[in-house]
UniProtKB/TrEMBL annotation:
Main location: endoplasmic reticulum
Entry annotated with the keyword Transferase: no
Protein's UniProt name: Glucose-6-phosphatase catalytic subunit 1
Limits of the Phosphatidic acid phosphatase type 2/haloperoxidase domain: 57-177
The species this protein was found in: Cyprinus carpio carpio
């Protein structure tokens, strides 16, 4: 087994060296791809757009992203520190690649959802269906290849880790394609699932720590040896990711069961939905610039949970309700 892993790691190092040597001019592109593949963009961009276009797709995106990342965090028995730039120390697990897994899960969900919507009345063998399938799946695999190459290029992952991430992400997305209960889950279900996922992850951490395995060992090392402690970002730790995900899932449940959401559903015209999308993206962009203070870890994690919960809550209920009221009032004035 050690020989196999040594071979994989040796191939990984060679792959990184090859990419960095022969494609060094593409560094900006690879860094952009890694940024674009971050799950943050699913919550702040894809979800607001798709929730207002097709509610079920938006809901499924959140479940796939959150559960996929939760599984990714819990399959690790350790963390790893890596220096990506001169000003940022990231602390996160390595195998499988979270970026590759997240991108595969999210884009697989989008592709299969678009195909289901566009081809619901088309024959599977029709020329339109074949063309659309071919185009979307080509785009899907193009994105996955770019994400995988970007993670190998910046030495964040080995090739086998990004490959495992892509396969894992597709499996999670396909599993949720078959789940219908997520669209009618009660607030109690959201609360219980959030509590279970959070408790399980914390219990696993405590168990491993009792056995002598500290998953946050990289944080202490980085804070001790990093030239500038400010470069050690708490938002890249496993706990930060866990609380962001749990906050997002719980916030979705709050939004879907809010009285404001019930009222806002009365407005369903295309123009109104586009207005919802623009307002959601604009407000969330401003909201994303607010960074929780990092001087106290406990406070940072708590505020990260609350901030993440606010994102779907605002998108699902608050913005549609406020804009529906404003548009309704404007219509009355015109009459």
């Amino acid at each position: 087994m050690n020989a196999v892993m040594d071979t994989l790691h040796g191939f990984g190092v060679s792959s990184t060296q090859y990419l960095q040597t022969h494609y060094k001019d593409a560094q900006g592109w690879f860094l952009f791809v890694s940024f674009a593949a971050d799950l943050r963009n699913t919550f702040f961009i894809f979800f607001p757009i798709w929730f207002h276009l097709k509610e079920s797709v938006g809901i499924k995106l959140i479940w796939v992203a959150v559960i996929g990342d939760w599984l990714n965090l819990n399959v690790h028995t350790g963390g790893s520190m890596r220096l990506l730039t001169t000003s940022t120390v990231r602390l996160s697990p390595l195998n499988p690649s979270g970026h590759a897994m997240g991108a595969a899960g999210v884009y697989y969900t989008l592709v299969t959802s678009i195909l289901a919507i566009m081809l619901s009345k088309e024959k599977k063998t029709s020329s339109k269906g074949l063309y659309l399938r071919g185009s979307l799946w080509t785009l899907f695999w193009t994105v996955q290849v770019c994400v995988c190459l970007s993670r190998v290029f910046i030495a964040a992952h080995f090739p086998h880790q990004v490959f495992a991430g892509v396969i894992s992400g597709m499996v999670v997305a396909e599993a949720f394609n078959r789940q219908k209960w997520i669209y009618s889950a009660s607030l109690k279900n959201y609360f219980n699932i959030t509590l279970f996922l959070l408790s399980f992850a914390v219990a696993l951490y405590l168990l491993l720590k009792a056995l002598g395995v500290d998953l946050l060992w990289t944080l202490e090392k980085a804070q001790r040896w990093c030239v500038n402690p400010a470069w050690v970002h708490l938002d890249t730790t496993p706990f930060a990711s866990l609380l962001r995900n749990m906050g997002t899932l719980f916030g979705l449940g709050l939004g879907l069961h809010s009285p404001l959401y019930t009222e806002s559903k009365k407005s369903s015209s295309a123009q109104v939905r586009i207005a919802f999308i623009i307002a959601s993206l604009s407000l969330l962009h401003l909201f994303d610039t607010i960074k929780p203070p990092t001087h106290t870890a406990a406070l940072f994690y708590l505020l990260s949970f609350c901030k993440s919960a606010t994102v779907p809550l605002v998108t699902v209920s608050i913005i549609p309700y406020c804009m529906s009221g404003a548009l309704g009032l404007q219509s009355k004035k015109q009459l």
